């Protein structure tokens, strides 16, 4: 049983690294989205498709717990169907949403070839997501606390967050949990009206990384089928996708904080706005096993592929689309991957790391998994 801290134990302090960039009105103007009324209608129609008997007691506003719970937003930057936010709202008196701008995401490079870990397009996409998240939290009566720094140095109390599955994110979870345990051990003993030190510094992670919840699988996770088709047939016949979780329409006001921080600009994250003038780009919506390959790392050939200057129109069009929009269709990704590794003979890791830099929808598992598959190197221990 985890118990959130009471208000007098609330440990956040203003940080000089949380520099205001621009005011909130400017933030909201930059979000290219549907109107608030349209978004509310979409949310309501989504909720009507589900019966949430498990959470019927949450129909009102207000919460059933004590103390303050911090909801650590990470990669799931939404209010709709957010189990971490829901869990905090029913277990604590007050909810404090938090996002940490981790320098390891913006100021570091990929493992082998030193490309920026996050490119300007994905950084801009993240900024727009944070603006939208802040706007939606304010609608609920909350706000979004934004801090610059490592989560393990910022988060000092009970946290509800979605469990991540990839190595870098999991390592951050371990660091946060370790720091919280050290805080608990350092707390002075003796009578207190606050929760005990063992209860006041715990990290509670909520599973939210998969369509089927890990607890609903028809087999033990240690018995996961080796073939995807076996997995798919088993879960489709024996498991159900959980219903959408509805957050109360309003929540108690968050704790009083002097400086909530602001959504940063690209400049503040160390990026420059990208501009291009490719007139044909539409910017609207819309091998044998165990055979070692000798990969080339020819920089000139790689740069020709990266910049869309190979002389092959289909390849160049896809790479220019990636550079300008941060997105390429699934088929386009397969084509440029095959061209780089099979026709140019370039190390597939260079392509994978460049995709990590550029893609708005970057995900470590799908990106590196697809590149190893495309390179015929599926046994490579990359994940």
TrEMBL record:
Query: What biological-process GO terms show up in the record?
Result: photoreactive repair
* Record-annotated Photolyase/cryptochrome alpha/beta domain positions: 67-195
A Pfam family reported for this protein in Swiss-Prot or TrEMBL: DNA_photolyase
Q: Which note does the record give on the cofactor?
A: Binds 1 FAD per subunit.
Q: Where is the composition biased (Basic residues)?
A: 1-10
Q: Which PROSITE patterns match?
A: PHR_CRY_ALPHA_BETA (PS51645)
UniProt cross-references to Gene3D superfamilies, sorted A to Z: DNA Cyclobutane Dipyrimidine Photolyase, subunit A, domain 3 (1.10.579.10), HUPs (3.40.50.620)
Residue(s) at site: Electron transfer via tryptophanyl radical? 295, 348, 371
Tell me which cofactor or cofactors this protein depends on: FAD
InterPro entries named among the record's database cross-references = Crypto/Photolyase_FAD-like_sf, Crypto/Photolyase_N_sf, Cryptochr/Photolyase_FAD-bd, Cryptochrome/DNA_photolyase_1, DNA_photolyase_N, Rossmann-like_a/b/a_fold
Q: Where is this region: Disordered?
A: 1-36
**PANTHER family membership:** CRYPTOCHROME (PTHR11455), CRYPTOCHROME DASH (PTHR11455:SF22)
Q: What is this protein called?
A: Cryptochrome 3
What is the organism field in this record? Answer: Actinidia rufa
